[in-house]
Specification:
By secondary structure, the chain is mainly α. It is built from 3 helices and no strands.
Length: 101
């Protein structure tokens, strides 16, 4: 049971990493007018990714402003999430896995 919980939390963090990367790439494509937001699917997809990633990116954006027009908050958030996945999750879940199996 503990391994399953670890798998779910790690998987959700992995999906969040993918969502942040896709959101950043999509914002670049929209900014350079490669993708048009007048397309309903693109607009809906962009709004969904924005709703998922904004609560995580906003606190970092408040602390670190864009540098020269470039927002580096996704990079910082990705580093923090990867640190959580590599170091914090095993440390937190090792007693749970030992207790529950």
């Amino acid at each position: 049971m503990g391994r399953f919980l670890y798998f779910i939390v790690d998987g959700l963090l992995g999906l969040l990493v993918i969502a942040i990367i896709i959101s950043a790439i999509l914002s670049w494509l929209v900014a350079f007018d490669v993708i048009n937001l007048r397309n309903r699917f693109v607009y809906s997809f962009t709004r969904f990714l924005d709703a998922v990633t904004r609560p995580i990116l906003r606190p970092v954006q408040k602390v670190i402003p864009p540098l020269g027009g470039v927002d580096i908050s996704p990079i910082i958030v990705l580093l923090v999430i990867q640190g959580i996945r590599l170091y914090l999750l095993p440390m937190v879940f090792s007693p749970i896995i030992a207790a529950l199996g």
